[in-house]
């Protein structure tokens, strides 16, 4: 008998000193949801207690610090959800807890009307962001409420990006911008089990790092692993258009002067990609608080750049159309040429601003600037080389009736040097058979 009493006393003492574990919370007024986000660095845990006859709620929220942020929200979807989002503070050794309300499937906004305070046990411990908190009068808010009598109250959870090219979020601001989640899901919680006790005493005395199974809660559907694919498509489409295709088209026209058709095809594809990237960028702007006003340098300059590309494409098309009709250079060709150079430089600047704005690591920005800089140098070098090489061949006689100094379209095609083939386009422009031109067999 004495031995049994001693065992019970030791068990009670261990729960008091070390906190409760899985078995200890089964009969306590706490509902706990536990899941693994799949990173191998720890569990995601959310626990809730609503003291009897109170509008306050006490909760525990924790997850691997490998993720930029850890969050929980009420309801089965983001719209009108009351959310609590935890992330590292500016020094990285503490936690910022931000209460937010989401209006749609977009970044939730900080709500100053939600009164929440962190309690003892909040911090970063062994690679885990851990929060114990009390939210005053949080069973109801202006866009929703918790049903304390429900045995299956819906909740959502999410964790921010865990690695890759993005910098980890560290901020003291309650309205700090957050990136799209990389893991999210739904769960339901028994609110009747979570109700009871006084001042969250039971919840605050529980060691949730040792809790490995849910109690009074369960997953509602499968966990989803996500990626920020719209940003990836936006960046790839515009990078391919401005950093690869457009400079490539310019280089092609300088190496192979008689390549106007391929130049047109190349630049048309680049223009389409730029348009696609721009449209996705406009849609992305509606997803984040920092971009919803469309007044940042990246957005303003980006819109100007995409519109300028469309104008440049039209000028090139119109120049070629007018040349076919009048067989004489046009002012549109010169504008098209110089406008392309300006757009290339502007696009590179806009891209660098966008990368810094999206919180990517410094190494990514440096790599982008170096690659873009090399491309600009190559384009300029080829342009200068082409001009110098053409001038160095000025002693050669012109092939056919046209003079060496004349470039009929005001472009780099049809120059009478070993790299030109003016007859290929001359017959197309004037509908004159190729064989009717003198020295036609000398064309390449």
Output the keywords.
444 residues, alpha+beta, Immunoglobulin-like, Four Helix Bundle (Hemerythrin (Met), subunit A), 2 domains, eight-stranded antiparallel beta sheet, 9 helices, 16 strands, 39% helix, 18% strand, elongated, disordered C terminus
- Sheet bearing the most strands, described? 8 strands, antiparallel
Mean pLDDT equals 80
What is the H-and-E element order? Answer: HEEEEEEEEEEEEEEHHEEHHHHHH
Stretches with pLDDT under 50, minimum 5 residues:
1-20, 393-444
Shape: elongated
Domain Cytochrome b561: 194-391
Signal peptide: 1-19
Transmembrane segments: 231-256, 268-288, 300-318, 339-359, 365-385
Keywords: Electron transport, Membrane, Signal, Transmembrane, Transmembrane helix, Transport
């Amino acid at each position: 008998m004495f031995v049994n009493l001693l065992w019970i006393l030791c068990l009670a003492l261990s729960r008091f000193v070390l906190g409760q574990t899985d078995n200890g919370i089964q009969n306590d007024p706490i509902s706990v949801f536990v899941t693994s986000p799949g990173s191998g660095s720890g569990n995601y845990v959310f626990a809730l207690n609503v003291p009897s006859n109170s509008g306050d709620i006490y909760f525990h929220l924790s997850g691997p610090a490998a993720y930029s942020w850890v969050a929980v929200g009420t309801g089965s979807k983001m719209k009108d959800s009351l959310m609590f989002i935890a992330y590292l503070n500016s020094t990285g050794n503490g936690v910022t807890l931000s209460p937010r309300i989401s209006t749609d499937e977009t970044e939730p906004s900080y709500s100053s009307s939600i009164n929440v305070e962190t309690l003892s046990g909040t911090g970063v411990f062994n690679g885990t962001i851990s929060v114990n908190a009390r939210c005053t009068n949080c069973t109801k808010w202006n866009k929703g409420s918790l049903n304390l009598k429900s045995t299956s109250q819906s909740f959502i959870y999410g964790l921010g990006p865990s690695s890759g090219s993005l910098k980890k979020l560290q901020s003291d601001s309650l309205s700090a911008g957050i990136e799209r989640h990389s893991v999210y899901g739904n769960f339901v919680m028994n609110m009747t089990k979570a109700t009871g006790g006084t001042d969250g005493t039971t919840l605050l005395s529980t060691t949730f790092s040792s809790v490995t199974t849910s109690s009074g809660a369960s997953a509602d559907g499968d966990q989803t692993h996500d990626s920020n694919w719209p940003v990836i498509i936006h960046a790839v489409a515009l990078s391919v258009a401005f950093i690869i295709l457009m400079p490539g088209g310019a280089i092609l026209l300088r190496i192979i002067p008689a390549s106007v058709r391929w130049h047109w095809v190349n630049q048309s594809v680049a223009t389409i990609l730029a348009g696609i990237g721009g449209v996705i960028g406009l849609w992305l702007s509606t997803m984040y608080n920092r971009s919803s006003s469309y007044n940042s340098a990246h957005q303003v300059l980006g819109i100007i750049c995409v519109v300028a590309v469309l104008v440049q494409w039209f000028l090139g098309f119109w120049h070629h159309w007018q040349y076919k009709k009048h067989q004489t250079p046009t002012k549109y060709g010169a504008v098209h040429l110089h406008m392309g150079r300006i757009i290339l430089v502007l696009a590179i600047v806009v891209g660098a601003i966008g990368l810094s704005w999206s919180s990517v690591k410094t190494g990514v920005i440096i790599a982008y600037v170096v690659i873009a800089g090399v491309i600009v140098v190559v384009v300029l070098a080829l342009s200068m080389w082409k001009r110098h090489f053409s001038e160095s061949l000025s002693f050669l006689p012109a092939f056919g009736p046209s003079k060496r100094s004349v470039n009929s379209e005001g472009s780099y095609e049809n120059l009478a040097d070993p790299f030109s083939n003016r007859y290929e386009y001359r017959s197309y422009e004037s509908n004159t058979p190729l064989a009717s031109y003198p020295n036609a067999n000398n064309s390449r």
